[in-house]
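// run 5 | inverse folding | seed 20
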């Protein structure tokens, strides 16, 4: 029997990589998207062979009502979800902290932190209505949580540090029914990294900072996420798995 996974922010980058990999492994997948309808449609087209096991739902991660609607839509299509990957996130302005205004800061924290908490809360509520073994959550942190991140991206790094804290807290709160872990990617070749680096060429040059001498791929992260969501990691909870090439 297929298990069901919700991926927030699943239309691009690491989220889309997890959607594709999960479908290959036999999951039913519901992913949310917010700002880029074209990317969501492209992912659906790419996964057309698995169309009956894929659902795309427009939902702003920071909006409580839209988050609940995402979970209701998933439940209506596939039943109560078995797993959750909270991937939705934003970088925010790349600028000195002294140049940021409150709205800039609030936007990053509302999507990255509040959005994660809202999704985890919705997952816990739905799971409580239909108890089942093996449920798991993976949150999206970053090695920026322990390094401070790239220059002029302090708010993003702070939001990812908060993800580590809430992951540890939720692992205790939701045990033994739901395991909760985080992944902390390093330099992964995505649109987000290209934005942070200031272009494709500067992004590729960052590989020199990595002990394994290459940028990571979305598939590298997807393999870690799906392992944490699987029964193979049944005694792993409250931890952060770096996917960072040794950084």
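// decoded
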């Amino acid at each position: 029997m297929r298990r069901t996974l919700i991926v927030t922010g699943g239309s691009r980058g690491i989220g889309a990589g997890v959607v594709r990999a999960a479908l290959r492994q036999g999951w039913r997948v519901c992913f949310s998207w917010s700002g880029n309808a074209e990317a969501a449609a492209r992912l659906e087209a790419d996964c057309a062979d698995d169309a009956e096991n894929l659902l795309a739902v427009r939902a702003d991660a920071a909006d409580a009502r839209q988050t609940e609607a995402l979970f209701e839509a998933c439940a209506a299509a596939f039943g109560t979800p078995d797993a959750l990957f909270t991937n939705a996130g934003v970088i925010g302005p790349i600028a000195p902290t002294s140049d940021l205004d409150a709205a800039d800061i609030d936007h990053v924290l509302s999507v990255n932190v509040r959005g994660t908490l809202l999704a985890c809360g919705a997952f816990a509520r739905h799971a409580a209505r239909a108890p089942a073994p093996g449920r798991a959550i993976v949150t999206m942190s970053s090695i920026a949580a322990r390094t401070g991140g790239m220059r002029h991206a302090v708010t993003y790094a702070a939001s990812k540090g908060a993800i580590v804290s809430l992951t540890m807290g939720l692992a205790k709160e939701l045990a033994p029914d739901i395991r909760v872990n985080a992944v902390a990617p390093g330099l992964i070749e995505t649109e987000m990294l290209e934005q942070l680096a200031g272009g494709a060429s500067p992004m590729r040059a960052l590989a020199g900072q990595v002990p394994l001498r290459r940028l990571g791929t979305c598939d590298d992260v997807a393999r870690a996420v799906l392992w944490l969501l699987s029964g193979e990691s049944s005694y792993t909870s409250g931890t952060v798995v770096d996917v960072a090439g040794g950084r």
